[in-house]
Amino acid sequence: MQPYVADTTLAQGSGEEHDPTGAVVPPIHLATTFLRPPEGYAATGWSYSRYGYPGLEKPEATLKVLEGAADCRLFSSGMSAMTAVVMALQPGDHCVFPVDMYHGLKTWLKGYSAHWGMRIDHVDMTDLDKVRAAVIPNVTRLVWVETPSNPHWHIYDIAALAEIAHEAGAKLVVDSTVATPILTQPIKFGADIVVHSATKYLNGHSDVLAGVALTAVTDSFWERVVFNRDYHGGILGQFQCSLLMRGMRTLHLRVARSCESAMALAEALGRHPKVTAVFYPGLKTHPGHELAMRQMTGGFGGMLSIIVAGGAREAERVMTRTHIWKPATSLGGVESLIERREAIEGPNSHVDPGLLRLSVGIEATADLIDDLFAALETNNAG
Ligand SMILES: *Cc1c(COP(=O)(O)O)cnc(C)c1O
Q: What is the dihedral of CA 111, 112, 115, 119, to 10 degrees?
């Protein structure tokens, strides 16, 4: 695929070469098996759809170009991609993960690492000395980071973490779900593996579960990741793949709009008397702002969190009074979502009970601000 700028690569997602019918979007091939000559594999390379199928390669090639990666694989969910990466490790390997990270993966790690004989430490990665102290040369195989991180939107220094990981002989994996390749290309900063929940911004319409893993180099570690997709059966299905490709064609527009509105919301909410804290890397007061200026291009993301005065009860009241903001988990869709994070994460959550996580969609910025402010005012009166 040609190295167009991201916008063109995405908008032209259906590719340069067209279907023999002349259709400008690729067809969906539902076949699970493909004709073979008696001596083995067909010239097309497709044999059985658990290993790949026509239609999968376009979105994989597009993402490869956007991230500057050597190879890409699509999975049936973000978790499927991420667990395929962790399961490429060996028993006894040591990994360093952040404290603030995707809750589902944290839960899986807890259940999996113990009986797999993997050793895992969670450290505050805004403090690089803590990461330096946690890595064990030639025993630590993986340093994992998610930036901006959920739900406080900390910004972690990918280049510095890559250096620390590489000195110890470990790989740096970046969960770039929230940044998307529009705002950050982790491989450019030294990351070895990039993962996404494509369920979020990449698809962008809250109707597909999908995941991505990309690599800077095709080495034996990556071969094990690919092996895991092939033999665990975590490949993305054909329908979902087609929907994902359609969603990705407007990624650049959706991300730009969400970033713009999120910035305006963060500034407006910062002035609201009922809001005691705003977490958004675009704000000069955010501790990761300087770093975000260096590491992110074109915006600071569509995710922000606020703490509402009065704790869980008041935060819940705000949630029930919005009309445009829908009370639901997940993020990165065209519709704006609001959730009280502690209630989603459960009793082990380290999140403030009054924290509301906002996923900013593509509705009119003024409507999003008005709706939330009205809910906060009602809250004030009641
Ligand atoms: C949603 C999410 C995941 C998990 O992805 P699924 O597609 O739900 O399996 C991982 N990391 C982050 C940052 C996410 O937001």
A: -100
